[in-house]
From TrEMBL:
This is TonB-dependent receptor. Keywords: Signal. Residues 1-34 form the signal peptide. It comes from the Bacteria.
Amino acid sequence: MTLFNTMSRSTRTVRLTQLTLAAGILSASLIAEAQQQPRPARPPVKEGEVENQEITVEKNRRIELPPANRIFNKIPSVKPSTEQRKLTYEFQDRKLSVGDPRINLNALPVSATQPAQNPVYNNYVKVGAGNYGTFYGEGFMGIHNQPNYGVEGSLRHLSSSIGPVDGKNSAQSETKGRLTGKYLTEQFKLSGTLGYNRDQYYFYGRRLPEGVDRETIRQRLNTYNLNVGIENVDSDNLIDYSLKTGIYSLNDAYNASEFDWGTNFNGSVGITDNFVALVGADAYVTQRTDGPVDNRNVYRVKPAFKYTSPRFTAMIGLTAANETDKRQGINKTYGFPIGEIDFVPTGNIHFYVGHDGDVIRNTLRTFLGENRWLGPQALLSNTVKLSDIYGGTKGDLGGGFSYEGKVSYAQYRNFYVFNNTWPDTSRFFPLYDGGTAKVLTISAQLGYSQKDKFRSILKGDVFRYGLDRLEEAWHRPRIAGQWSNSYILNKKLFITSDLYFYEGIRAKNFVSGEAYTLKPIVDLNFKIDYFLGKQFSAFVSLNNVFGQNYQRYLYYRVQGLNFLGGISYSF
């Protein structure tokens, strides 16, 4: 059973094993790794980002090919192991996620996984419906019984014909298709993914005149992606490597488009049983067309050395990054010293300190992922993390309890926020602090698990923004919290709940000059799966139980209490 999976509340459960070198330094949620024997690392939780947590019960429905057993940024075992040379990688660019909670506006589908049964059914079809004219459909098919390869495909649709205000003028829909494949040998693993996403919604954040043409407020995003990769799986190989490349193509209803090609390489060479040489390299070539054509590229290399022992781990290195922007006439190269020290005084209790810096890419696709109400021809500029000094403690307290506490003080150039545009306040644009913005983040997390029945994670983050040129950190919260739980009863009833809290979000109407403090957000959600037999199950989701039509972004009220129910058939 997979204990901790990260899933967007609007999408699927993600089970990718990852870790680039930078993600290893910044990771704040590897508590579950503090065990005697090494095991694959969880995907890193980015600083300040509140993510939905879900406990899923595996049915071997997904491709399960044995990954390389790597150790980069893992909590060291009490006993030395030759496997400590290995690394874990995932293709993913670094992003600025300080104070960026992402709240889904749609009803959440239930998990695609079920408790293991005999026989095991790898494929399924699910259908459901709910209030707000909501329809949900999902299908999955895969080939998993082959010894060295697997193929799977999925298709998912979720739509609401009416929204929180003005009926169909706030409707929304989301369609996703995905085809993945993996091929495994004794030496390496090949993987590939082909995907398509279509999102349609409306700019309803203002009073619309009678008889408005809905096409003038409709937005449609089409995203295509192709990712391929090769990585080492031989744990006895002295040289470890991962090479992945991915292409994303995005277009919208307002003639904006973006082509983004990223390639990521990570490698390691074991010098001794405790000493490893590391290298990471990234290349991102981006062309954005939204009016004028803009070519924006980022190249990055990251050499480092890491020493690991049962009680002490140290890493030191350098991040060198070059960014170019044809439209803004930018061609700059930066160097950031990086390092981390992790000390284990006893048991599985860790204390760590470190320093980091980087160029964080901001693209049209990443901005739309944070704020879908983005207006046309938004200025894109990368954020430079000049320095991030952090420290904290994490570990296993016994009795099923684990914890982590972290303090970070970071300085940014081009620190960005979102705010309503003018004169159309239903659209948003990014604002950048061209000086040096200082952000203090205090984070804490407490987890509890009871065998295979109950899991609970409580998180909290406090942010303090010291801005140089911006008036406020518009639409970034001061306090963010999340409490996620999962409970399994008699292998038939599976219940999950999520409680979110955000406070201190400020916004401004630049037309009237009036600033607002948005009401605190309290969002409670429940999901229930009941298994009716070997092949049938029923599900229901209750979202925004308190019925608050809160605003995450000014003038955009979300759906109140909404529900989704349906059935699933496995074959």
